[in-house]
Structure formats: C-alpha cells, structure tokens
Amino acid sequence: MERPVRTPRRTFRYATRPSLLARSVWLCARHRPASWWRLPLVAAWASQIRRHRRARLEIAGRAYLGYQASLPADAYFGESGVRGALIWLAGADSVLSLGDGVLIGVGVQLAIAAGARLTVGSGTFINPNSRIFCAEGISIGRDCALSWDVEILDFDAHEIGSNGEFRPQSAPVRIGDHVWVGTRAIILKGVEIGDGAIVGAGSVVTRSVPPRAVVAGNPARVVREDVDWRHVPAGSGESDG
Ligand SMILES: CC(C)(COP(=O)(O)OP(=O)(O)OC[C@H]1O[C@@H](n2cnc3c(N)ncnc32)[C@H](O)[C@@H]1OP(=O)(O)O)[C@@H](O)C(=O)NCCC(=O)NCCS
Question: Domain 38-154+169-224 belongs to what topology?
Fold first, then answer.
C-alpha cells in the first residue's frame, strides 16, 4: 500500500520574500521555462543550478532548494550566511528528478555525471550540508529523512585491481521509501536500503540493508529488526507522551 506523503506546501509563503521570489523566478525561467510561472522550484538566494545544455531537471509539483532548518516552526531560507544549495547536472543526459515537496537544505550538493540519474521521491528532505555524488544511478524513495552531513555516492572515483584486473568502480544505489539516514552517515556504491529502514549516525553502509532494519557502525551492521519510525519535528511538542 502506498504511504501518503505530506508535502510542505506551506513553506511557499517564504516565496513572498523578495530575494527568494527573485531567485526562484530566475532559476525556474532558466531551467523549467515551460512552467516557470508555477514556480516548480522555490530557491534561496545563494542556491545555484549548473546544468549542461543537454541535462534535464524534472520536478513533479514543487521542490525547495536551500532551506535552512528542519525545525518547521522556524524554517527559513538563506539567512544564515551559509551558502545555498548546489545542483550540478554536469554532463549530457544527466537527469535529476525531484518529487513533489522535496526539501533540499542549504549547503547541500547534488552532483550528477553525464548519463547518470538521481531520483528523489515526494516528501523527502535532505538536510543541510549533505552531499550526493551520482556517477551512474541513485534513487531515493518517498518520505525519506536524510539528516545533516550525509554522503551518498555510487562510485569510488578510483579503480581497485589485482593482477591487472580492475573491478567496476561504480554501482547504483537504491534507497527505499520512508528511510531515515542519521547524521554523518556514508552510503557507498551498490547498496540497497529497504523501505522503512534506519541508518544510525556516523554509519558507513557498505552492504544492503533489509526493510525496517536499523543498521549502525562502520561497517554498518543490523542492530534492530522490524522497527517502525515516524518523523516528530523537533520543537513541535509532538511526542508519544
Ligand atoms: C540508530 C539509532 C536510531 C538507534 O537508536 P536506538 O534504537 O535507541 O538504539 P540503541 O541505543 O538501543 O542501540 C542499539 C545498539 O546499537 C548501537 N548503536 C546505536 N546507534 C549507533 C551508531 N550510530 N553507531 C554505532 N552503534 C550504534 C548501540 O551501541 C547499541 O549497541 P549494543 O546493543 O551493543 O549496546 C540512533 O542510535 C541513531 O544513530 N540516531 C540517529 C540520530 C540522527 O542522526 N538524527 C538526525 C535527525 S534528521
């Protein structure tokens, strides 16, 4: 059954700030000209998109680029002095596909090589200073929570070999729906993370993770199974009581 995803429509009110509105209109006009007037992208002033002329940016609904905090009551854009987010569609046929309500934090870098595809599902947020480097293919499902300083890469950038035989240095990464990745976790090439899983803070994930498992450590190992988790915004006062 598909899990409903709550998308953060209300953050659009920040588009009434002149600098935010100006940046959003400018980026939408350049990168989504057919529908710029619907503002498919709401972007903080310092946010950048570098796009090869044959690369594609797809947005289903509206995505948010360069938000500052994950505390919804205080969420604001681009006022901390930290530079904005960077989307870098580096080569021909690089594709970035963003679902509705995707939030991309300030300082986040998404770099997608020629011919590679990065997909981020609806309602997913990527907190400030995380970096995703995509040489082949990375897909992140719906309703995922990626914390601060997370790194995801589907390639090694250097080949390892023995007796003159070199192994492939890239393999796609697939992160399912409703996955929570803790701060400073690193997810490496070829990993699949099942729906509902949790990756502990600081973990280095080198092998695939079953659905609803909690993995932690370096290398990450399963420390719990069959868990459920839900997002409780810090400062919201919501808790199990
Ligand atoms: C993974 C996590 C959710 C597990 O929480 P938990 O279920 O309460 O886990 P516990 O504290 O009971 O730990 C279970 C075991 O895993 C180990 N463990 C937990 N988190 C770990 C981590 N990040 N790295 C290494 N080991 C970890 C514990 O030491 C414990 O091992 P033990 O049984 O040998 O003593 C939590 O530790 C964590 O890393 N949270 C991420 C916080 C974060 O980044 N938030 C950002 C919000 S967007």
Answer: UDP N-Acetylglucosamine Acyltransferase; domain 1 (2.160.10)
